Amino acid sequence: MAAFPFEIAATDGRARTGVLKTARGDIRTPAFMPVGTAATVKALTVDQVKATGADIILGNTYHLMLRPGPERMARLGGLHRFMRWDGPILTDSGGFQVMSLSQIAKVTEEAVTFASHIDGSRHVLSPERSIEIQADRLGADIVMQLDECVAWPAEETRAAEALRLSARWGARCKAAFGDRERQALFGIQQGSTFEHLRKESAERLIEIGFDGYAIGGLAVGEGHEAMCETLDYAPAMLPAERPRYLMGVGKPIDLVEAVWRGVDMFDCVLPTRSGRHGQAWTWNGPINLKNARFAEDDEPLDAASSCPASRDYSKAYLHHLVKAEEILGQVLLSWHNIGFFQALTAAMRLAIAEGRMDAFRRDFREAQRTG
Question: Is residue 267 annotated as a catalytic residue, yes or no?
Answer without folding.
Answer: yes
